[in-house]
Specification:
This protein is mainly alpha-helical. It is 45% helix and 7% strand. The strands form seven sheets. Strands 3-4-5 form a three-stranded antiparallel β-sheet. It has a three-stranded mixed β-sheet with strand order 7-6-12. Strands 1-2 form a two-stranded antiparallel sheet.
């Protein structure tokens, strides 16, 4: 693909709905039957799409249809349990444990700034968790892919943990940041190779490594992963291998379904992007839940649109949040495709800057120049459409409708005035954190926003019951804001960054000591308490939490005489 093709408004050759597979459709039927038979207590719908077949699909379906049913069509618990045991391998069997080739119990030069022996001992335990999370797709998936929802991959992976038994896109960035702190460079490169494989196979990076995730992506951070690995290793071959894939991914995110043109008050046109899943049905991994959410919507096209909004919110990584709802008390008012998100456009700006940098180091000055120009256009767009000078934040922009035919005219009233951690994510990118006066203004706004709590940054100020809202704090959001502040060159900003990092490290430590586990999210109001809310039980493991703790300890260390307990 040429650079001009990558930078031009890419016409989308992707249909708005990516068809599912017969296997996934059957797993959805199994999931619904399991709910009706076993009941809702401790029911996880994902379990039933993560199993594998012991026999071919026609044989299994035939046996399923022939199961004895009562007069009302229901199955007995005993019969369904027996059927599942006979015809299915359990969830997780399509991955096998893999000993990372570059793991050593205490790497040379590991976290040199950590002087406190108690903190160092814990950091080595967190480092050792990489062995727990390391997997390789089973040979059986390679031999008989039609029996599995797991997708074949060329290299080993790091899974997030618990019910997340496969590789995930945006999780991988913070996993890689932790792996780099752990000196596990080959493992980090293997993860990138897998994500590039997705682009080569599908044209974009999937949400995760399952057949039911082919209808959407996740926050595009592949270029940032490659940039960080290159900075640590100088691996030019990785850069050269990655560039064609990055150009292809860039085109995907600038395709017709994702891009929207906004005309500002000076009649300048700005192209920005949104999440837009290629799906308008219940998500297979949550079919039973999604159908229940949609049950009060009677109109077929409205129901299909709701399902697209659900899947698009999942594509954002923020599944789910009041951020995407017109009415936070009504889940069916999800309107993700009607929102131009600050953070997504920041990630695409970062992609443009990364591609320019990576192209330049390979000697491709033409591509580098083109992407510098593209980044400048996006920088102007972010300033014109998202920036609110009065509040000192970047605010999500709500479109007048989600069809986006032609262009829309910017209106101040369409900036969402609610406070979310995402309002500060642009600080992560050098284009913004290198501006000293801007950093001072944004830092003052952040300190007065209410987001900074005793034990980290809250995701929002609204306690909606959704997991990407108050009082939950998430490792990626802490990291991007902290790193932006720390790299700004301002002593005051770095001091604030270190303070936030210390709060986050401390609550992770205390929770680990209480539970023996690292957690997916944390309650930023209570030291050592993991987060709750959302549509599934809290998870442990946990890839990105481990990665951010190690990255923070590498950056800031921990003094000998500083207490780690609450």
């Amino acid at each position: 693909m040429s650079v001009s093709e990558s930078l031009s408004p890419c016409s989308s050759d992707i249909e708005p709905v990516i068809p599912t597979t017969p296997l996934v459709s059957f797993f959805e039927r199994l999931q619904e039957t399991a709910l009706n038979t076993f009941g809702e207590t401790n029911f996880d719908p994902k379990l039933y799409v993560d199993v594998s077949l012991k026999f071919d699909l026609p044989t299994t379906e035939d046996a399923f249809v022939k199961l004895p049913k009562s007069a009302n069509g229901s199955l007995s618990v005993e019969d369904l349990k027996g059927f599942i045991e006979k015809y299915f391998e359990s969830a997780g069997n399509d991955m096998v444990y893999y000993e990372p080739v570059d793991f050593v119990p205490e790497p040379e030069g590991f976290l040199p700034k950590v002087k406190n022996p108690e903190v160092r001992a814990w950091a080595l335990e967190v480092h050792a968790l990489w062995k727990n999370l390391s997997r390789k797709v089973s040979d059986q998936v390679q031999k008989r892919p039609e029996l599995h929802s797991m997708l074949p991959l060329p290299e080993p992976v790091m899974i997030p943990g618990s019910r997340f038994r496969e590789i995930y896109y945006w999780d991988s960035y913070w996993i890689i940041r932790g792996l780099l702190a752990s000196k596990m460079y080959e493992t980090a490169k293997g993860i990138v190779t897998n994500l590039i494989y997705f682009i080569e196979e599908y044209g974009y990076v999937l949400t995760g490594g399952r057949a039911y995730y082919t209808n959407r992506s996740q926050p595009p951070l592949l270029s940032a992963m490659i940039y960080e690995i290159y900075n640590k290793t100088g691996d030019m071959q990785l850069v050269k291998k990655s560039l064609p894939a990055l150009l292809k991914e860039y085109c995907f995110w600038n395709s017709d379904i994702h891009k929207v043109i906004i005309q500002d008050s000076q009649s300048c046109n700005h192209t920005l992007n949104r999440y837009y899943a290629m799906w308008n049905k219940p998500r297979p991994e949550a079919t039973t839940k999604d159908k229940k959410f949609a049950s009060k919507i009677s109109n077929v096209s409205e129901k299909q649109q709701f399902y697209r909004e659900l899947a698009s919110a999942a594509e954002s990584g923020w599944d789910f949040s009041s951020r995407w709802m017109r009415n936070p008390s009504d889940f069916t008012t999800l309107a993700t495709t009607t929102i131009l998100p600050v953070d997504l456009n920041t990630f695409i700006l970062k992609m443009e800057l990364d591609i320019a940098f990576l192209a330049k180091v390979t000697g491709d000055n033409s591509t580098a120049t083109s992407f510098i120009e593209a980044s400048q256009s996006r920088l102007n767009a972010i300033k014109s459409v998202f920036w609110d000078e009065e509040v000192g934040q970047w605010l999500d922009y709500w479109l007048n409708d989600s069809t986006c035919k032609g262009f829309q005219t910017w209106e101040a009233c369409n900036q969402k005035q609610s406070v979310f951690a995402s309002n500060f994510i642009p600080l992560w990118v050098e284009s913004f954190h290198s501006d000293t006066s801007l950093v001072e203004k944004v830092m003052k706004s952040f300190q007065g926003s209410g987001l900074l709590c005793a034990h980290g940054i809250a995701t929002s100020l609204m306690n909606s019951g959704e997991q990407w809202d108050f009082p939950n704090g998430w490792a990626p959001l802490q990291h991007m804001i902290v790193e932006g502040l720390a790299r700004s060159g301002s002593k005051e900003a770095r001091s604030l960054a270190e303070d936030i990092a210390m709060r986050w490290i401390r609550t992770n430590y205390v929770a680990y000591k209480k539970t023996g586990k690292m957690h997916e999210k944390y309650n930023v109001q209570k030291c050592g308490e993991f987060g709750g809310g959302g549509k599934y039980a809290p998870q442990t493991g946990f890839g990105w939490s481990n990665g951010v703790v190690l990255a923070f300890l590498e950056e800031f260390g921990w003094p000998q005489d500083q207490m780690i307990d609450c």
